[in-house]
Every structure is written in structure tokens, then in C-alpha cells.
Sequence to fold (969 residues):
Amino acid sequence: MMNLRYLLPEWVALGVFILLLIAEILKGDVKHPDAQNIRSFCITSLLGSILVCISTLLFLKKTGTAFGDSFIVDPLSAFFKLFFILTLFMMIPISYAFFNKRRERLETFLLILWCTLLGMFFLASANDLFVLFLCIEIITLSFYIMAAYLKHELPSIESGLKYLIIGSLASAFLVFGIALIYAAVGSTNLPVLHQAFVAHPGDRMLVLGMLFIIAGLGFKIGAVPFHLWVPDVYEGAPIPTVAFLSVGSKAAGIFVLLRLLFQVFVLTDSQRALLFSTLSALTMICGNFGALKQTSLKRLLGYSSIAHAGYLLIGFAVGYSGGITGVLYYLLAYAAANLTIFLVMAIVDRHLQSDRIEAYAGLAQRSPILGACFFIALLSLAGVPGTAGFFGKFLILLAAVHGGFLWLTLLGLVGVVVSLYYYLSVVRVIYAEEPAYDEAIPVPLSYRLTLILLVGGIFVLGLFPAPFLLGCYHTAFMLFQTPLS
Amino acid sequence: MILLLPWIPFLAAFLIMLAPREKEFLHKQIAVTSCAVNFAIVLWLIFHFHPEVPGYQFAHRYPWIPFLGIHYQVGLDGINMTLCLLHALVSFTGAIVSCWPKDRMKEYLCFYLILTGAIYGVFTALDVFQLYLFYELTLIPLYPMIVIWGSKNKAYGAMKLTLFITGGAMLALFGILILYRNLGLQSFDLLEMRKNIEILPMNPGTVHGLAGIFLVGFGVIASLWPLHSWSPIGYAAAPTSVSMLHAGVLKKMGPYLMLRLAVALLPDGVHYWANTLAVLSCVGILYAGYAAVKQQDLKFMIGFSSVSHMGYILLAIAVMNQATLSGAVLLMFSHGVMAATTFACIGFIYEQTHARGVNDFGGLAKKIPFISTCLIMASFASLGLPGFSNFVAELLIFFGSWSQYPIIVSLAIFGVFITSLYLLRMVKSVCYGAENPRWSLLHDARTIADKLPFVILLGALMLFGFWPQGLLRMIQPAVGALLS
Fold:
């Protein structure tokens, strides 16, 4: 069955991508970028992402397959597609703020963003291990380019190179795992694999393959012991890339883990609990303590993103709809807070000229709105009540207590206190220290609106979680209900 | 009415945020007015409060997150009514004190109002989730307030205070999550939890563990020895109105939450820890008293003094009977008002002199008679002189605990002597003795706006000193219901 209508969001996204590509080929000028051109590029991207968003919403409740079983539409894929497209929407102002002031080629960057998005969309619907791997590669390849995008700046190139090497290693793990599983089963179709896992739960080839795949995904989400690249790459890469890496790429990793772990692989509860609670404990400890002594804000956020991966992994250790609801909600909260922070960083980038934490001294005085947004976003990352981050942590820890993971819960709570130390140190610099330059940082209306949207999102997710919670719960519930067809 | 209490300050903070930066007077007007409105609401509630009616009054309940059984639920009994009155007094006077000239007034008032609203939220909430949410929300404005407008070692003091209290809050959250799981109610409703525990008791091991978690978790903010060390440093670093609110009201959230979550839900668990808690509180009384004697900085001294006073309240919770708990709630009120007055006096002097060593002054009674009188009266209240409500409260606690812990009570009474030692010494060296020529330009509170906070606070202290029944008639039935 072809069922091409299930691909509507992908068609729309592909349409926007091709439109932008043609426009870039016909009108793009690398040497002399035209401001009007760039603006129309951004507006087209924004409108396109709204269109994609609407077309995704149409398939929110539908389930079905296309392309002879290799493409699937289900609540999980719809949830992540919505997540990715909203992230892309917010990425456009971040990229505009960063690249336009630096006079770099914004159009090409947007094209790569759309290409990554297409990879993510097909990833969310992949029902075949091979397609899955292909999509991950599309995403990773785009990130290689994005990390090294500032081709005149050494740190950016270094970061791109590091990501290339580590990313290739991760891909090697993945492909080796896939090869082992294919060798054992003789198919790459996920439902078929699931049946094989059910039939031979202890098969060595399958287990080994599974572990290799989990390791490969560990690189993507930045979990210990595969986390070492995160701070280095974050430090050098341009801010929009870091934003997309920390939100989009991590979510993609989480998605694949969800899909494979709960719908394909067969692990007993105790095995999964042992594996993931160890990983999550180590990840939280490494991330939180690593962040304590950082002087570069991007490195600090790198370590903080490792710590957040640790919290997400608690949800995997717990499993069941409770834990997964927590994971999904946490991801939303994390995305809202991180995108706010990176938008602020992108806006102030040219004014501060540095990503050292000291450079942010007195930001609240130079621009109260940026200071306040940064403050709120940091609080949300730390998990302070009233913000989205708190409710995300609350759900995950509630699930952990219900599942009997008391020591992991306690570790998570200690992690909150530790993380508060480094987040508040940044707050202190922003609010209490005297700025090096007194001139105010102007914030145009469009950025103000975007910031209000993001901060509003943080508060809505934190104070009125009921509808989103139901959405996450429905998605998580369906993950365990519907076997892949 | 009661629903408005937390939201009026939040709304005012939002309005100030929107108002242009130059209009400082407008910001002050908004801040003070909103606190005054809240004060009026609390008074209205007190006049319409019927002590003889059992249960929670002015109760409202709206579904919030039905999926997890979380409601937005409010209500007042005698205990939190008293604490709301305390908070209304201190936050209103604190708002006036906040208007003393400083840099970046707009941001300060915003943070101050958020803090005020969150405390009202804690004292009116009847849903554990909501309670916890407001409780931790109070911590957030504190950090920037101390770190921007504080003095002396402020970065360290602010961080230590925030991390300690957050650590305690996290432990409490752990307890709340376990409680929620073990009750299996799918509800965070405090009243439902209580009913359920009466019908289906939990196993004793869990009860003991949970009570321990709550006592330690909330003990941090109640400055239970040895978890008190954030308190003197934090108060010394904080600006005046923050010290007032923190020593006066915020610290009382610790014992208040102990009453609501530990004493009401897990009385057996509290019994289990009673001896430990009594010993720790006694050590706290004596140790902090001794430390206060040794201090050279007025704010440090009062900080240690407040740790020492909190010991009496914790002792009362350890004994847990009608008399001691009534005394504890009354002492929370009296100590709150007293501590706020003292910090306001010290702040008033510090604003002009930027000095606050015990020996930096002398003869201030002649120079600034009004403030000195207030300081002396607050000190007398603090050392439990009859005529102030502290006296009645401490007496109730001592009488109530005598039969159970005679030795500890004797030691605690000795603590009162230590209190008089350092307070009288302070009064002597600050207010009397030779005049220090350095402060010849020091001026007294002249305007009504300057005097009003002191008048209100001391007036309340004396009103309920001579008429403790005014508060006790509300507190006693509520405590009875808590213990039954």
C-alpha cells in the first residue's frame, strides 16, 4: 500500500525545502548578501514551518503505514514531529539573530536546517532499521556542516572536526549493532525484529547488537560514558548549531531510544532498570559536577545538557507510561528553556563578543528583558516551581518513586541542588555585577515577541500543565498499546 | 477574598515591571498599596473568622491538574490565620522599609512582591503540591535580592542560604512523593490524606522514615541545629526588608509545614523522633545563644538569636501537646514580629552609618530616641518580658514540656538568661554609654512614613502581649483539631 497521504507533513516540508533551494540557486549571492533577500528567506521559512505544523496536527490521532511498512504514522511520531517543527520555528529567529549580525550566509544555514528537519521527520516515522539509520546519518551529516559553519573561525572548525570524528564513531557503533541484528534475523523491518526478539530473548547476537545500538544512541543524547564530546563541540560551534544540537539532536536520540527500547527490543524490567539507572546516575553526576567549574557559558550549558540527559534516562529506567510521560514532558520543558537561553545568547553575541560567563556581567542592566528571560530560563532548567522544568522533574521523579527507584530519586534531587549552584552563579553575574560597557542592548520587537512566546511557554507548561500532560500521557500510553504493524 | 491573597502581590509585581523605569514613586505606591490591600483583606478575614467552627474556613477548591489529583485548594484554620496576620504585618511594614532609597528600586520591589505573594500562597494552601510549589517559589527572589542589594559577603551568604534551604526542600519533596505513593490516593489533598491515614495507617517503618524526612527537610528552614549555619550569614548579608521577612515570616514556614505534614499526618513518626528533636532543639537554643554572645556584628547577633528562639518552637513540636503547640504558634507570631522590628531598627541605623558592630555605637538613646526605644522594646520582647506576647508563648511551651523533659526545659530556661545577657549588653553598648562622635549627623525617624512600620509592629506585639487570648482563642481549637 502506498498511502501517500500519510506523508503530507513530509511533502509540505520537502516543498518548502525545494522552494528555498531554488530561490537560493537563482537569487542567492554569497559575496554580497542582500538584506531583503535574507528577510524573505526567513519569512518563507517561518510560514513554511507553520504550514508543516498544521499538516502534522491533521495526523495527530491517525495511525497507519506507507511504503510497504517502512513508514509509520502513530502518536509517538506525531508528537516528535510537532516537537521538531516547533524547534525549527524557534531556530529561525536564533539563526537570524546570530548570522545576520555576523554577516554570514544565513540562507545556506536555513537550507541545512530544513534538510535536518526532513531527516528528523522521516526518522520519526521510520519503521525499518535501515531507514532509521539513514535518517540518523542525514541529521548527523547536517550537524557536521552546521558545527563548522563559521569557516573563518578556528574554534568552529575544531568543533566541527571533533563532532565529525565522534559522530562517525557513534555511527560505527550503530551500524555494527544493526549489522549484528540483521545477521541474526535477516530483516530490518522493526515489527519483524520485535518478533525475533520475543522468540529468542537471550540470543547473543541480538543482545550484542542491541547494546551496540544503545551505545550509539548514548553518543547522540550525550549520556555517560559517551558524553565527552558534548562540552568541546558546544564550546566551539556557532550558537544556533549548539541550540539545535542540544534540543533537536538530543530529542532525536531520545525518540529512537523510545521506539527501539519499548517497541522492538525485549528487555525485562529489571535488566532495563539496572542498565538505565546506572547510566542515568552516572550521567547526572558527571553533568552536574562537571558544570560547577566552567567559565564558558557554552561549556556550562554543555554539561547541563548532559545532566538533563541523566534526568531523561531516569524515565527510561522506570519505563511504563508513567516514566515515559515524564520523559516527553521533560523534553518539552527542556526545549523551551534551552531555546530561550540560546536566543538571548544569539541576540547579545555581537555586543559581548565572548561566551565567557564574565562577559555577561550586568546583562540585566543593559537589557532588563533579556536578563529576565535568561533568569527565568535558567530557573526552569534548574527545576524551580512555577516553571516548566519543575513540572518535568516532578513527573519523572514521581514516576521514579512509584517504580521504587528511591536512591535514583534522591540522587536526582541532590542534582537539583548542585545545578542550582551553577545556574545561580550565572544569575549573579547577570544581575549583580557591574557591566563592562554601559550602552543598552537594543531588542527589536520581533525578538521580544519570540522571547515572550518562549517564556510564556515555560510558564504555561509550568502552571497549566493539564492539557500537555494529557497529550504526553496519551502518547506514552499508545507507545505501549499499539504494537508496530 | 482569600484566593486573592497571593495574586495581588504577583499582579502588583507585574504592573511594576510594565511601568516605566523613571517613575520610582509610582513603583513604591503600587508596592505599598498592594501590601496594604492584603493587610486589609487579612483583617477582614480575621473579623469574619469563627474560632468555634471546626475545620477550615473560607475554603475553596478548584481542580488544577486532575490527572494527578492536584487541586488549587485554600482554607484557613486558627494556625495559618495567625501566620497570615503575621505575614500581613511584616510584609506591609517591610514594603514601607523597602522604599528606603536604593539603586534599582523597580527590580527590588518586583522581587519583594513575588516573595510576599509566594509566602501568602504557602500560608493559605491546603494541597500539598500547591504548598510545595509556593514554598520553593519563595526561595527564588531571595537569591537576587541578597546578591544585588545585600552587604558584607553577600555572594557567599546568598548562595549558602539558597542551597541549604533548597536542599531541605528537596528532601521534603522526596518525602511528599513517597507519601503520595504510599497512600495510593491519587490525590495531593491534605484533608483527604489525613482522613485516609486515620482509616488506613501506614506501616510504622515508613511513618518513622517519612516523619524524619519532613523534620529534617523543613528543619533546615526552621534552622534546626546543626542545619542552621545558613541563617546568621544569610541575614547579615541580606538587605533590611529581606531580613525582616526572612527572619520574621519565612523561617516560620518550617515549623508550620512540620505541623501540617508531620504532626497532622504522621504523629507516631514525630513521637518516634521526639527525643532526638528535643535534644537538638535544646542544643540549638544554648549553642546559638552562646554564639550570639560572642558576635561583634549586630545582624549576626540577631541572626543567632533567631536560631536560638526557633529552638523553643522545635522543642514544642517535639513534645507535641495542646499547650506546647499553642505556645509554638503564638511564639511564631511573636518572634516574627519581634525579629522584624529588630532588623528594621538595625537596618535604619545601618542605612545611615553603614556600621553595625556592637561596639561601633554608643549613646544612641540621646541621638535617636525613637529608634532606640523601639530597639530596646524589641529586645525586651525577645527576652520574654511580661507584657509582650513572647512571654505568654514561652511560658506555655515550658509548662507544657516540663512533665516530659524537665532537664531540657531547665536548660532552655537557662537559654533565656543567655538571651538577656547578649541583648542587654547590646542595649547597653548601642543605646547608652558615651556618645560616639562619628555619628553626629545621624538623624531619627522623622516622618510618619519612617515611624509607621515600627509603630505597627510594636503595637501588635504589645496588643497581643496584654491580650494573648485574642490569638489563642483561634489557635487552640485548631491545635486541638490537629492533635485529635
Notes: Strands of chain A lie at 64-66, 71-73. Chain A has a mean pLDDT of 87.
